[in-house]
Specification:
The complex is a heterodimer of chains A (141) and B (119). In chain A, 36% of the residues lie in helices and 28% in strands. By secondary structure, chain A is an alpha+beta fold. Chain A has a single domain, classed as Heat Shock Protein 90. In chain A, β4 (120-126) and β5 (130-138) form a beta hairpin. Chain B is α/β, with parallel strands linked by helices and 119 residues long. Chain B has one domain (3-109): Udp-n-acetylmuramoylalanyl-d-glutamate--2,6- Diaminopimelate Ligase, Chain: A, domain 1. Helix content of chain B is 35%, strand content 18%. In chain B, α3 runs parallel beside α4. Classes of the chains: A alpha+beta (141), B alpha/beta (119).
């Protein structure tokens, strides 16, 4: 099987649409017959990252590469950047505004969840310029 | 326990009917979706007082079969459409979160996280 590439523009102004890209990837992976554990792990990680993009960075772009043995996701935003990545990785630490909490997010579980469900996670962030996140889930056949 | 049992136990209204005979193994009650996403093990029903499309998306990511809205909350049409495309049953009960969870627990349903201590 060759590599399948998917790309998505994530709008920053519509919280109700956040997660559309992740839902679509999940559907595609199901159609391709990937095992449910791998699908769920990448879908949850990508969903959390997509929500982060909308909450913190006014949207961004996501590209997904589907290989037979792994799924790679790259999320690029042009938001404010993450001042302290180590702190942001701590469960419960959040800088999300109150209105985001009232929507069910901002519990400070986003990045820890992403870490928990992926096999590889890398964050490149520059203050004032944006953040790029690389996620990978390995597929056990 | 199946979805139909939950309807009876919680005296719930059916907002959207999926598979009422689907087997429900575990439950999770929360208004924080990130907390729901943190516990991935066999979650089958979500109880929540939160009403927005992210509730349905979260349930979809977790392969949940049923969402129960507590305190008489009702999902809007956007949420119903989303759930419909994913085959998720939507229910609404007048009960509060604590009571709804307690009733399901006392009828044998358990939490779904990895750690035995949090059941």
């Amino acid at each position: 099987m060759s590599v399948i590439n998917l790309t998505y523009d994530v709008p920053g102004d519509d919280f109700t649409r956040a997660g559309e890209a992740s839902g679509n990837v999940k559907k595609q992976l199901r159609r391709l017959g990937y095992n449910s554990d791998a699908i769920r792990r990448i879908a949850i990680a990508m969903y959390e990252a997509e929500i982060n993009m909308v909450i913190h960075a006014d949207g961004g772009e996501i590209s997904v590469e589907i290989y037979p043995n792994k799924i790679d996701v790259k999320l690029v935003d042009h938001g404010p950047g993450i001042p302290d990545v180590e702190k942001a990785m701590q469960a419960g630490y959040s800088t999300a505004p109150d209105n985001v909490r009232s929507l069910g997010f901002g519990a400070g579980m986003g990045l820890p969840n992403i870490k928990k469900y992926t096999d590889e996670m890398k964050i490149d962030t520059v203050i004032g310029q944006g953040t790029t996140m690389y996620l990978s889930v390995h597929v056990n056949s | 326990m199946i979805v139909a049992d939950i309807i009876k136990i919680l005296n719930a209204d059916i907002i959207l009917e999926g598979d009422l005979n689907a087997d429900i193994k575990t439950a999770c009650g929360s208004d924080m979706m990130s907390d729901v996403l943190a516990y991935v093990k066999d979650q089958s029903v979500l109880l929540t007082g939160l009403v927005n499309p992210q509730v349905v998306r979260t349930a979809d990511m977790m392969d949940m079969l049923c969402i129960v809205f507590v305190r008489g909350k009702k999902p809007d049409q956007t949420m119903i459409d989303l759930a419909s495309r994913r085959g998720i049953t939507l229910l609404s009960t007048q009960l509060r979160m604590f009571t709804a969870c307690g009733l399901l627990y006392s009828n044998g349903l358990r939490g779904g996280c990895d750690n035995d201590e949090c059941h």
